[in-house]
Write a structure and sequence with these properties.
With 329 residues, the protein is of the alpha/beta class. It is built from eleven helices and ten strands. The radius of gyration is 18 Å and the shape is globular.
């Protein structure tokens, strides 16, 4: 098979055709592309830390941390730097190579809390880990300060299609999200951006979101595929589960469209069996989130533990991928 070239000119009709390819053939095609750009024996294992939990003013319909909904999440102040560094060190000792720090903010503000986050980035990076932050919207100057602190990646998901977006979120626009991605692109910090399956979206919405991501130039270096965790108290608490076949199709299509990107099997993985996860890896997923406390970000989102994940990777003959270093111009 000839090497699949990286394209930024995908047409929506092409994506529809790929997505609707007979499943086993789609997995084969995606697996072939994956092997051209990645070591298929390696999986990056990541740790997500909620450095500031709850009391978010936004109305994201899926989110346990919104102040608008009554959920099991209790608001907590920004963690102390030493606490975050200790969690990161423990994660590294378990084979984790990437730590993502999330704060339930609408946007980054130029205050003492941001200064504290910058110090966290510096110290966790010094451990030899890739550091990703998800802090809400940020300006170009704030992105530059994160770059100077050593940040490897910034996560800002699109969540869904532009057409369906305001059904799920009204407190910021799709353009706001794309603008933050553009601000990150003004630096050498890599971009992490994907979406969530199970919000009530159509297949057309999934295709539209993939089209937006796959026509960004360059592609996001990291594309998380999340499965909705239905949180009691949120507007989406009664959404039906996403079939595994939809998850595999989404991962495989993302892999073909964005061959050099990491495709991350993210929230919702706890409900998948080892066999189902193996299908996702075959379809092109090459990253997972693991945990030392059974939660991915908050108590409402279960996450498999370090030991269970190591056992699964051993069973499948997969290895944990080491951290990368950010290219500096």
């Amino acid at each position: 098979m000839s090497v699949s070239r990286i394209r930024y000119d995908w047409d929506s009709s092409e994506i529809w055709t790929i997505y609707n390819t007979p499943l086993l053939e789609l997995i084969y095609q995606a697996a072939s592309v994956h092997r051209q750009y990645h070591d298929s024996t390696k999986i990056q294992v990541c740790k997500l830390i909620s450095i500031k939990t709850g009391a978010c003013p936004e109305d994201c319909s899926y989110c346990a941390q919104s102040s608008r909904y009554k959920t099991a999440v209790k608001p907590e102040a920004l963690l102390e730097k030493e606490t975050v560094v200790n969690i990161a060190q423990k994660a590294k000792e378990s084979g984790i190579s990437r730590v993502c720090m999330g704060a339930a903010w609408r946007e980054v503000r130029d205050n003492w809390q941001f200064e504290q986050v910058l110090e966290m980035v510096k110290e966790v990076t010094a451990l030899g880990l890739e550091v990703c932050c998800t802090l809400g919207m940020l300006s170009e100057s704030q992105a530059k300060r994160l770059e100077d602190a050593g940040l490897y990646a910034y996560n800002h998901n699109l969540d869904t299609s532009a057409e369906y977006y305001n059904t799920i979120i009204t407190t910021r626009t799709y353009s706001d999200r794309l603008n933050t991605i553009n601000n990150v692109r003004s630096t050498n910090v890599t971009v992490c951006s994907g979406g969530i399956l199970g919000l009530g979206e159509t297949v057309g919405d999934r295709i539209s979101m993939l089209h937006t991501l796959a026509t960004l130039q360059p592609h996001p270096e990291s594309v998380p595929i999340n499965i909705l965790s239905q949180v009691p108290g949120t507007p989406l608490e009664n959404q039906p589960d996403v079939p595994i076949w939809d998850v595999v199709r989404m991962i495989a299509t993302a892999r073909i469209l964005m061959p050099a990107s990491d495709v991350r099997l993210s929230a919702g993985r706890a409900r998948l069996s080892q066999v189902e996860q193996a299908l996702c890896f075959m379809a092109g997923a090459n990253s997972i989130f693991s945990s030392d406390d059974g939660h991915m970000l908050t108590v409402t989102t279960p996450c498999p533990g370090y030991n269970a994940d190591q056992e699964m990777l051993n069973l499948l003959g997969l290895e944990m991928r080491p951290a990368k270093t950010r290219a500096v111009c």
